[in-house]
Specification:
4 strands, 4-stranded antiparallel beta sheet, single chain, mainly beta, 0% helix, Rubrerythrin, domain 2
Length: 52
């Protein structure tokens, strides 16, 4: 994966960073929020994009 397109996803509940994703920064200006499985919380929680 290209390093410029990579973003970190942080759990909104426990604040752990376990997931990485890609986004087209030219087309998508807002921060991405996805529901992912958090290993620490042991359930599906919203994950928000964080700074690098």
């Amino acid at each position: 994966m290209s390093q410029e397109r990579l973003i970190k996803l942080q759990c909104a509940v426990c604040k752990s960073i376990k997931h990485w994703s890609r986004k087209n920064k030219r087309k998508v200006e807002r921060k991405i929020e996805l529901k992912k499985f958090c290993e620490k919380c042991k359930k599906h929680t919203p994950h928000k994009e964080t700074k690098k």
